[in-house]
Design a protein that fits this description.
The chain contains 1 helix and 7 strands. The protein is mainly β. The chain has one domain: predicted glycosyltransferase like domains (Thrombin, subunit H, Beta Barrel), CATH 2.40.10.220.
Length: 114
């Protein structure tokens, strides 16, 4: 299968909460990988392709949890995995130190843990 990703993914486990534009409830998820363009995750609730979502990532930086800003995104793909779903979420906004300083730090942390 041809690789379509333009940005390099970093593998990193983190807790994620996902909220769709159609449902005000936060869905629990686990992030598997991250890039400047988006994340791959396993979610405990339903997600739909092309659905607008907000995400909150909580990752461990050393021994302390750090929660990133609320980040807007769009679900780019969904795949059922048992009772859960695997999904890719593309960030809607450009991620840099100015727009999302905590998320940028998370990306730098992921890059440093090869």
């Amino acid at each position: 299968m041809e690789e379509k990703r333009k940005l390099r993914r970093r593998y990193m486990l983190a807790e994620v909460k996902v909220k769709s534009s159609e449902n005000p409830e936060w869905i629990e998820a686990v992030m598997l990988n991250i890039s400047r363009g988006g994340i791959g995750l396993y979610a405990s609730g339903p997600l739909k392709k092309r659905e607008k979502v907000s995400i909150r990532i909580t990752y461990m930086e050393g021994a302390r949890p750090v929660e990133a800003e609320e980040i807007p995104g769009v679900v780019s793909w969904v795949q059922p995995v048992g009772d859960h779903v695997g999904a890719g979420i593309m960030f809607e906004a450009k991620v840099n130190r100015k727009t999302f300083p905590i998320l940028s730090r998370c990306l730098e942390y992921a890059r440093s843990n090869k």
